[in-house]
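During the first year of the project, the team set up a workflow for recording each protein of interest as an amino acid sequence followed immediately by a discrete structure-token representation. This format lets reviewers and collaborators read both layers of information side by side without switching files. As required by the reporting guidelines, we include two representative entries from the current panel. The first entry is reproduced here exactly as it appears in our internal archive.
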Amino acid sequence: MARGNQRDKAREKNLKDQAGTKKKNTQSGTEFQRTKEQQAAVMRQKQDEANAKKMAEEVGTKKK
């Protein structure tokens, strides 16, 4: 019984660590696909905006 407290502390620490870890994906296949497509659309929009800004800067530097 000398190690009882040590075991309890280790068990509590392990449970706390497990609670902090990411769980398995809970989305269904269609939900996951829809989320993936939405994220891709946002990234495409950001890329288009960045390309437009870059083109505007290039046009501005060529005129000078």
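The second entry, processed by the same pipeline in the following quarter, appears below.
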Amino acid sequence: MRLTNLLLLPFLPFALAAEVTTEYTHTNECSRKSQRGDTVQVHYRGTLEADGKEFDASYNRGQPLEFTVGKGMVIKGWDEGLLDMCIGDKRKLTIPPEFGYGQRAMGAIPAGSTLGEYCGLLDRRRAERLTVDHSLRDGISGYSRRGEG
């Protein structure tokens, strides 16, 4: 092995870094797609890529999962993989351990597992914005939700 190759070995993990892959199974057109900070409702079916075994599904409970995208409320693979979706879109996310649960076991998910997540976006809402009510000058009580007085 040449010296140049030996010097590059420490950087090999960065060159081979894993990423979330997305298979678009159903897409819609819309004027605004999901963004970081949006609250979304998602139906999903989680499987292990190794054998296809289902480990969780919101469909079975009849209750979608609601969370804010990009806030770390879910695994990193979801925070990244559910961006730029329209309501009604469906995707299959293939999530490597680095974007899932890593090298720790989580319930029925063995350590180091690659996940297959079948997701459908049911609803999306913009994050609430705080506005200043300038008629109130008594500190923190001057903040209200938009539309509230």
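For the second entry, the following points were noted during internal review. Residues 11-15, 129-149 have pLDDT under 50 and may be disordered. The longest strand covers residues 115-125. Both points are flagged for discussion at the upcoming steering committee meeting.
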